[in-house]
From TrEMBL:
Keyword Membrane (UniProt): yes
Organism for this UniProt entry: Chelativorans intermedius
Segments traversing the membrane: 20-45, 57-80, 107-130, 142-161, 167-185, 197-218, 258-281, 353-373, 385-405, 412-445, 465-485
Protein name (Swiss-Prot/TrEMBL): Tripartite tricarboxylate transporter permease
Record-linked PANTHER family: TRICARBOXYLIC TRANSPORT PROTEIN
Record keyword Transferase present: no
UniProtKB keywords: Membrane, Transmembrane, Transmembrane helix
Coiled coil: none
InterPro entries xrefs: DUF112_TM
A Pfam family reported for this protein in Swiss-Prot or TrEMBL: TctA
Amino acid sequence: MLASLGGALLEMLHPVPFFWVALGVVSGIFVGAIPGLSGGMLIVLVMPLTFYMDHTLALILMVGIYVGSVAGGLISATLLRMPGTPSSVVTTFDGYPMARGGQPARALALGISASLFGGFVAGFFLVVLSPPLSRWATSFGPWEYFGLVLMALVLIAAISQGSMVKGLISGALGLLAAMPGLNASDGQLRLTFGFHQMDAGFALLPVLLGVFVVSQIIRDAMDGDKVPEAVDVSRNIVLLEAAAWVRHAWNMLRSALIGTWIGILPGVGASISSMVAYGVARTVSRRPDAFGKGSEEGVVASESANNANVGGALIPLVTMGIPGSPIDAFLLGALLLHNIQPGPLLFQTNGDLVWAIIAAYLVGNVLMFLVMSTTVRFTARLANINPAVLLPAIFVFCIIGAYALSNRLFDVWVMIGFGILGFLLQRAAFPLGAFVIGFVLSPIFEAELRSAVMSSGGTIWELFTRPIALTFIAVAVLVLFLPLLRGLRRRPGDGPDEAGQTRQSKP
């Protein structure tokens, strides 16, 4: 393991791989710092450009974007109270008050340092846990994979912002969107409605471009110009002093562990990680009243957790082929576009690629720290860029990427159609992450379910003889019905009164 990691790190320092990692990190920081844009959008946009690249270089470029964009969201969250990424929402609670209180450089230094620390803690677990988890997952049969995917979909719906029902509906729509085309089990066409262009179903790239990028373009175009003036950062370099590292070390470590382990859960996301870490930090703090008013502990907890979440979410991706977040779903799609089969056999069939991804994540965190610490005055100005200026160019790249996939105008219309669908889902508060992951996991879900039923003679009773699969199903059922159980436990006399306070029923 150490030999493989060492070789991958040395290979990553060669000029060509290092260039692609650095390009990914810098561009990710650039996009993450601009409100309205995201690392997921950039990854989907560059995916068509990687068709003729070496698959290893393509993946390390996207991992670099992933790392850079999550950290870059700190800039606009701190200076503008406009999180560049959803995971930076919690950073606004204390980063923005610090910036308005005359300490923007201090807030950025805390966030950048915590991001580096969280990234390395998650990197440790990524290196240590991935090989044994991959070997354990090779014992999975079709029932285990069916249960795992079902659990992932339910977790995504349960943890999605807003209603669980809306999360489930969004995930189900994603599953449905992946069904048109050739049925692999019997070779028959289904849900094509006579359109021969749909014989192969909806291609992954146009769907991703539409749902995640075009929908955001429509949303930004309708919202208009909403870019406030940024806080000026006068310092060229922001570094945290040694005493502050020591003072915040336990908070960084605790928050990084929370972010890593929540990241391992499929579909939970960095937003939940930062919220949980922030809540824990406030609970154990000696100065809980300072939170929300410019607390250093709050900035450290949020940024350490959301960057650690990136490494945690990569663990189920490289070991079992299950995306831990929407961006990991894009990376999974990139593997499929490069004809690489994700799953537990990935370590055996493409071990060099897996270790290259891990090495790119570690090197990317170091580059992120160096770039953001030494170019803070420039990166702070990125928050002033009006996203509307970039929207026309982004839309053109979307059209080119969708058309270049198969040289079909049909794919462009698919992209636009799913863009409108994504916009409508967002307006109705349906989570797009659940839709995307449902679409990506649908072929695995269906194939494993068919294989499991066929191998057991057309019945589902074999499921109850397989402890691992049954555990996955049980977790999914528990998560699905937990809100209902909580509602039943609440007594009829309890509830909010007219003043909004909780009223207790009399004994």
